[in-house]
Amino acid sequence: MQRIKTLTVFLTLFSLTVLHAKERPNVLFILSEDQGSQLGFLGTAGLQTPNLDSIARSGVYFDNAFVAYPVCSASKAAFYTALHNHTNGILNNTHNFHKPADQVTPGEKSNPLAQTNRIKDPFITLTEVLSANGYFQGVTHKLHVLPNEKFPYDRFMHGRPEEIRTFLDAAKKNERPFFLMVNIPNSHRPYPNSEKKKIRVDPNQVSLPKFLPDSPVVRRDWAEYLAGIEEVDSIVGDTMRLLQASGEAENTIVIYMSDHGPTFQHGKMTLYNLGLRVPLAISGPGIPSGIRTKALASELDLMPTLIELVNRRSENELKIPGTTDNQFPYRLDGISLADVIEGKEGAKGHQNIFAEISNEGVLPNKGIQERSVFDGRWKLIYRENVEKGWRQVNADSRMYPTWGNRTYDETIRLREQFPMQYRVLAEMDPQNLGGNVERLELYDLKNDPDELNNLVNDKEVSKHRERLYAALRQWAHESKDPAIHPPAIELIMPQPPH
Questions:
Q1: For an engineered disulfide with 157, which of 139, 163, 237, 348 has Cβ 3.0 to 4.6 Å away?
Q2: Residues 6 or more apart from 258 whose CB is under 8 A from it?
Q3: Considering only CA atoms, which of 75, 73, 86, 89 is closest in space to residue 123?
Q4: Going residue by residue through the chain (498 aa), what tens digit of pLDDT does each one get?
Q5: Nearest alpha carbon to residue 451 among 432, 417, 473, 427
Q6: Is 178 in contact with 167 (CB distance < 8 Å)?
Q7: What is the DSSP string of 83-113?
Q8: What is the DSSP string of 298-355?
Q9: CA atoms of 325 and 334, how far apart (whole Å)
Q10: Crossing angle, helix 161-173 and helix 216-246, to 10 degrees?
Q11: Which ranges of 419-486 would DSSP assign to H, the alpha helix?
């Protein structure tokens, strides 16, 4: 009799365990703004990020994670759709209507930018997928993608702790899995002003990229940027404590990423490493801890990866709205990295990572079209319309009074002392500083991580130029990129003198 009771208790506990394992996991997506891959975890000089480091160590950290477009709205559109921006429809920053679709006014809807810079109708967003499957969804700070109808969040919040606590309580009360997007703007300019507010980061202890002039002013600017990241870290700590207090931490997939790099030359709105490479960590139930992978990952992979991770932890597959077979009715540019995350033998990331900048928007002419391809070591950048087009330079990449950018004016002031650093700045802002923008660039990031030595004319590495250019041409063709038409490479390479 005792054995029967013991067996009954065991089977009951087993069935409860199975039931819990089959519940759909929650998702906490932490998105910092304008933060490159600078973390204490990565050894960034002068920086302390214990909470972000904890997330990185508790799961899988991607050393080679990149955005598809290095500006806010376009980057968000890429991970929400798993489609490159020349496909999904958002080619630059658009309006931020941080509210439900039924509260967007007719005037806001009819705004010309809102009509043109938006996700195209046929494409399905991650928010729509999760909404169709019963997820309770919240977003903090800003939405910054359009149209709002494609982002049916249940709650639009400012990000205050009490709001997040109330959101988590509501999800539990209603017995619904949650998706919470926590946008954290503190690593976006303006950074903490160390002339008015004491910061922990010591400018004398930081290590500047080689493309920035090494002066006290620039060191202060970089230190303030790192101080902004430390503020992000503090908010992340508060958020993780709220998750723990909710009792849902063990059943929550946590994603931490940034939307693109910071506002320095070679950063935001450029296709260089500082602009494209971002921190990416994923942890949660069934995900091994303490793993660092070199697999090439794109933000485009987040939606298919998340769907796959949820499906593997659920009784039923997520339904894709408007379909009968739970398959997207078009090809996604992103791939699932679930096997990489779960440590499956032979799992791989991308062979090549592609990115783009359209430079279309508030410009006096059609801007320069820019595309890049990276294979883990070699980076090729291709451009069109360099002779007549402009490059868009965001205000926070230039202005001190509003955005606290100390580096732009300081680089100009020190152009005689730091000519290479001024050249890099002038290339970023050619219409104002007269910089020469190259049509084709090739960099060896293993030996030149700051991308300062353009090897495109070096015969010894020409095989990498040919290989990557061919891959970029094929990608442009297969993805139906309407804005570029890469010719045969011999037509754009400089001809040797007779």
A1: 163
A2: 31, 32, 33, 34, 35, 36, 187, 278, 279
A3: 89
A4: 444 343 333 333 333 333 333 489 999 999 999 999 999 999 999 999 999 999 999 999 999 999 999 999 999 999 999 999 999 999 999 999 999 999 999 999 999 889 989 999 999 999 999 999 999 999 999 999 999 999 999 999 999 999 999 999 999 999 999 999 999 999 999 999 999 999 999 999 999 999 999 999 999 999 999 999 999 999 999 999 999 999 999 999 999 999 999 999 999 999 999 999 999 999 999 999 999 999 999 999 999 999 999 999 999 999 999 998 989 999 999 999 999 999 999 999 999 999 999 987 654 457 899 999 999 999 999 999 998 888 999 999 999 999 999 999 999 999 999 999 999 999 999 999 999 999 999 999 999 999 999 999 999 999 999 999 999 999 999 999 999 999 999 988 876 655
A5: 427
A6: yes
A7: S-HHHHS--S------S-GGGS-HHHHH-HH
A8: EGGGHHHHHHHHHHHTSSSPPP-TT-SSSS-SS--SS---HHHHTT-TT----S-EEE
A9: 19
A10: 30
A11: 419-428, 430-433, 462-478
Please tell me the distance from the alpha carbon of residue 412 to that of residue 414, in angstroms, as a whole number: 5
Helices (H), 362-461: 407-413, 419-428, 430-433
262: helix, strand or coil: coil
pTM of the model: 0.93
* Amino acid at site 485: H
How many C-alpha atoms does 53 have within 13 Å on its Cβ side?
A: 12
Report the distance separating Cα 36 and Cα 278, nearest Å.
5
Identify the CA nearest to 281 among candidates 82, 105, 37: 37
Q: Measured between alpha carbons, how far is 294 from 349 in angstroms, rounded to an integer? A: 9
Which residue shows structure tokens 């100390």?
A: 406
d(CA 442, CA 250): 45
Token code pair at residue 217: 């002013």
Among residues 468, 114, 75, 31, which one has the least CA distance to residue 269? 75
For 487, the token pair is: 């010719």
d(CA 136, CA 167): 9
Q: What tokens does 192 get?
A: 């903490």
Contact between 46 and 223 (Cβ < 8 Å): yes
- Specify whether the CB–CB gap between 350 and 408 falls below 8 A: no
Phi and psi angles of residue 213, each rounded to the nearest 5 degrees, phi first? -65, 135
